[in-house]
């Protein structure tokens, strides 16, 4: 064994790992990062736009739904808006970790979003629009997860976690669909 290498029990070259880690310019992105960082950042920015449009749609529905018997829908809209905002925050944080810049530009938000905004006035149309948007988000996240594969496990895990909540949202909206 060479004298300048200090392997761990599993055969890792600790000296090489330490030398590579000394490059501080890239923050959390190490030499071992295997994904196309710019492509992942672009994907995450589109997901960020989608989450922000979903926040706005759910907030509008929360504030405008009215009528007797719509309390459950109203509560779901508010809960989902809060969770979609949390997703947006997580995505923005990951973009920054990858040395990118989160795109919050309102002028291009709807064009970059996978889901559409909705300004329906009745609860049935609101629920339908939200269910469609959740299904769009689920499929978008599924495709992003496949595209990333094992090249960026941190981003992949984040997208899996968000997709699981989007699936819960879809179930909630499906349960609220008028008969």
Write the topology of this structure.
Blueprint: H1 14-21, H2 37-64, H3 71-97, H4 109-112, H5 123-148, H6 153-176
Name the features:
Ferritin; elongated; single chain; mainly alpha
Gist of the model:
The chain contains 6 helices and no strands.
Major sheet attributes: none
Poorly predicted runs of 5 or more residues: none
Helical content (DSSP H or I, runs of 4+): 55-70%
CATH class: Mainly Alpha
CATH superfamily: Ferritin, core subunit, four-helix bundle
Compute the CA-based radius of gyration.
21 Å
Structural shape: elongated
User: What pattern of helices and strands is seen along the backbone?
Assistant: HHHHHH
Can you give the mean pLDDT?
Answer: 91
Distance between the termini: 72 Å
The total count of strands amounts to: 0
At CATH level 2, the architecture is Up-down Bundle
- The total domain count is 1
> What structural class do the secondary elements suggest?
mainly alpha
Binding site for Fe cation: 51, 87, 134, 166, 169
GO molecular function, one term: ferric iron binding
Keywords: Iron, Iron storage, Metal-binding
Protein name: Bacterioferritin
């Amino acid at each position: 064994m060479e004298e300048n290498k200090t392997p761990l029990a599993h055969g890792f070259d600790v000296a090489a790992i330490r030398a590579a880690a000394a490059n501080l310019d890239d923050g959390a992105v190490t030499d071992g990062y295997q994904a196309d960082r710019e492509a992942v950042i672009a994907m995450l920015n589109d997901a960020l736009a989608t989450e922000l449009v979903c926040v706005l749609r759910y907030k509008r529905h929360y504030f405008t739904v009215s009528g007797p018997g719509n309390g459950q829908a109203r509560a779901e809209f508010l809960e989902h808006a809060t969770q979609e905002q949390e997703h947006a925050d997580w995505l923005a944080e990951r973009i920054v970790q990858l040395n990118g810049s989160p795109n919050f530009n309102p002028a291009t938000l709807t064009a970059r979003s996978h889901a559409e905004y909705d300004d329906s006035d009745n609860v049935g149309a609101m629920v339908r629009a939200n269910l469609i948007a959740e299904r769009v988000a689920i499929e978008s996240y599924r495709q992003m997860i496949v595209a990333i594969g094992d090249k960026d496990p941190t981003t992949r895990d984040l997208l899996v976690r968000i997709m699981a909540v989007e699936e819960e949202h879809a179930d909630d909206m499906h349960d609220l669909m008028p008969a």
